[in-house]
Amino acid sequence: MGQLDINIVIGGPQGGGIDTSANMIIRAFAYAGMDVFSVREFHSNIKGRHSYVHIRSKDDKVRSLKYPADLLVALDPDTIFEHHEDVSKGTMVIYDSAFEGSDLGQARMIMRDTQKGIKETLEKAGFQTTVKGMLEYMQKKGGKLVPIQFDSVLSPVVSDGPTTRYFNTFGAAVTMSLVGIEKSSMEDAIRYVFGNKESVLKTNLAVVDKAYEYCESNKLVGRKIKKMHRESRIILTGNDGAAIGKIMGGLRFQTYYPITPASDESTIMEEHEDLKWLENEVDQLSRGGVVVVQTEDELSAITMATGAALTGSRSATATSGPGFSLMSEAISFSGMDEVPLVVTLYQRGGPSTGLPTRNGQADLLFAMHAGHGEFPRIVITSGDVEETIYDSMKALNYAQKYQVPVIHLIDKNLANTSEILDGIDTRRVKLEIPEIIPQNDGFKRFSLDTSSGISRMGAFGKNIFWLTGDEHDEIGHVTEDTRMRDLQMEKRFRKLETAEKEIPIEDKAVVFGDKKADVTFVSWGSQKGPILDAMNELKKIGISSNFLYLKMFTPFPSDFVHDFLYSSKTVIDVESNMTAQAAKVITQNTGLKISNYILKYNGRHVTEDELVEAVSKIYKNGVKKVVLTNGA
Amino acid sequence: MAHNFRSDVAIDWCPGCGDFGILNSIQQALTELNFGANDVVVVSGIGCSGKTPHYINVAGAHTLHGRSIPYATGVKLSNPKLKVLVTGGDGDLMSIGAGHFVGEGRRNTGLTVILFDNEVYGLTKGQAAPTMQMGQRTKSLTKPNMFGRVNPISLALTSGYSFVARGFSFDGKQLKEIIKRGIQHEGSSLIDVLQPCPTYNNINTMEWYKKRVYKLEDSKTWEPVVKNDDSNLEEVFQRAYAKAGEWEDKIPTGIFYENNNIPSFPKRINEYVPRYLENPPSDQKISDKDGYTLVDPMKTFSEKIVETIK
Q1: CATH of the domain at B240
Q2: Chain A CB within 8 Å of residue B292 CB
Q3: B189-194 vs B163-168, strand pairing mode
């Protein structure tokens, strides 16, 4: 174990079957018993612009991606232009030799600024601004070219239309042959992807056969990776994980307005509205489905979810930055009226529309402060696919238990990360369900008689009570009485103190690595995996490191964070934003100032290699801030 | 014993306000329909109309400006057994919440939307509301109204409301009957209620309306109901739409349009979500006796499982 480490970038035009290729590759590795981690990168575009999937497979746990690529698979000329930086000594570049005639000037789907950069690179290095020139440049950098005449290889086996329809399968199969994955695993992957389409399945299998045959006769075969048997595993993205976690956590009502990268979670839920049950005594009372409603806008999405929560069901909405901006007023209402509500906030590159399909972590401070006035809330974050499941369950629990809005931050990178989990533990998180006792006369939904700040939950249909955005009395009627105002404000905020006391520290912050280390990482969200992998690599070059991983920002684990950082040596804050927002929260809550930063705001995922390099610069050369730039 | 729908909260609307007539009609309608204490929910937005839920002795939510409809839709979809009333003002439903008003027509969830229509924003001191005519100048306007008028009846018709009616706050008998039919209607209903604002609207007063309103049902040939087979749909709709345009000298009240052939949103959801109407989100048991999930995630998402073949 721990011998194999394969990094693949496969690119092509959006809508040209790249996702399918990536799916095949991921599945084939998985069937071979390997672990796989991948991230999908795409433009805000339906068809034509460059998209790619960055995949890494290991024979033990893989938690991040790495450049340079071992294989660059180009299903169009643009991929060759766009990914020249991913190619280094030993990178195999697989492409259709028909691309060789393409000129950079004709590549109109490459963004103008990107084109300019590519042109400068090629001209500086003395190569022509054509695919041919770029390939020569790659060769000079040590890349190994694998040109294949896709059409002529495929035409004997494709009879149902142009061979181009099968280029993505062919590209994936050649890749798998090159890395040494047995054909049977690739065939299983094809059967998975095209299982119910008999005619397509047949041709695709023939294409795989042809690809392996071609590679065999042209010596394009990697060292065979022996198939390893594994127990059942499950391949999930961050979007999947959040959907599963919410459903397991008892969510039965979800609203959304279409927005990247959040709406996948809701459509995934819709596809699975017919739930399957564990075998223990599921009576008729529990059997039911999940209702997912696409609303007219985000104002409606959050208020509809809030309305549903008033009847006692667990409800949530999912959105991204622009939608969350619209939701602010309703978050304030949920805080004021103590309605259990979960908002899953998928951050993407902002401000405004920003980088709508790219990564970002610039909404942390916004999530902590969105909504007018002062009210308690809980803000949590997830850093890998497994966490999206259990954190989604916990988010619903916190909302119910403390009767507050809970904002669950996920980032685009994690939403589109695909990981393999060994299974899903149905008994890791217990559902916290408040008791609802039918009562009408004298029911005090906002009773002040509570030391925890938590009043008895009520539900429309079982209790008569009122809600109002105005300050209110214990029953829920409007008041402007000074004393009642103070008491209700203080009661609401007591809940936050209760939550702070009750929620265990491991749900707020986790330390990885030894207590004492040369370097201490501080981070949150999807940098978790890259940092954990970088820690191993740093060790190999003589730098010991540990990692303070933050999961809850409100309430913030101030003492824990203070005590840990106070005795740390070189503290480095790593975030996918420009202004180091988490570091600001740390300073605000602990008084400690962090002086080293690794930041990335180009919208692409943080990779292991760039982290290792950045840490070396900070630790060895005394650089204070490194801005990461990897990614096409 | 019949439930008392009057709450004990002191009502702080201005003397002579049309809101009183609407409140009384709602309370009478609920009493006559024999609803129990926990059968009905009232949801409002902001403004004088927004206070209505506090005055009715059922569960109520006085929500955000413009958002009464989506809050109410959430209540109804989570527990479709509840009767959900929306009491909103003309600014609330026709301006800041107009998008939701249209959205609800498309959904046809089964809300009873009662529009408190007095052409002004009373609680913020009399600005022109979207139902005021262009050029009209009520007493607190600094100049004549610069904007055109939204017609709630025609907007409701084109948005897809399956029950569209108009009442007058000083004709409690007719209004109560309209509200009763609106509540009993399975789809969503819009009931536009003409009412004076005695403090800020010195033009559209009680007397002004009394001189102009007439009842559609007084005409023997008036037929607002679409037949089961949709055979008269076009005719009924066109007639309602034409009537909606009447204003100035003669203002029609009564039921403009009723279509029982469009399945309500809950019924449509029930076609896809198993056992939805029988066991809606609000009623579902979600954990086993030890408090753990009942859902089998691996079986529910079985297509994502990967098995290595031995």
Answers
A1: 3.40.50.970
A2: yes
A3: parallel
